[in-house]
Write a structure and sequence with these properties.
Blueprint lengths: L1 H5 L3 H10 L6 H8 L8 H11 L16 E4 L2 E3 L1 H8 L11 H37 L2 H27 L7 E2 H9 L10 E2 L8
Parallel strand pairs: 3-4
Antiparallel strand pairs: 1-2
Helix pairs in contact: 2-3, 6-7
Length: 201
Amino acid sequence: MYRDAHGWSVLDLAERCTAAGVPLDHTVIADLEGDRRAEVSVQELLTLAYVLSVPPVLLFVPVGSDYHVEVTPGVLVAPDAAVRWVSGEAMMAGDPSPAIWQRAARPLHLYRQLDKAHARRWNAESELRRTNSDGSESERALARTQYSLALANVSTVLTALVEDGMTVPPVKDYTAADMAKLGLAVPPGVPTIATDEQALV
């Protein structure tokens, strides 16, 4: 299905996978498509998803095309439950070690939180820039408050990531400067990216 969307033959897809750094013979791809081969390495799976421009999970979870997924022999779950499990959003029903699962999934949870925190920061930052340019005093005050709250949220998540010993994505230099001016924690070891932007606070 995904190969057909590109108008590629099996040989075309094999050549593109090889060009991407993972040699895949066209007979292997044909066997995968024809359910004559059940095993695929993680590297092969990720390469196929990259070349085909599809989310990797869709190559092994039939969302929208079947009623269940066999995650292990005899264990059938709905596709949406399988997707949540694979992405770390929810554990499998009946998981015998929920505490271990929750600890293992924490990095995924924190990175999602960080993504949301930065999205909130970006929206607040854009509004503050707008009001600084043509807003009223009350609008600027409200925008500054929202920006400060958004930065506080970013600081909280960054701190949690650092405390858990995780690698933290860099923040922009002016964001770090604004956080420091507001007395918000910029955890040690968090890298910054140099920009031409001016601090807003």
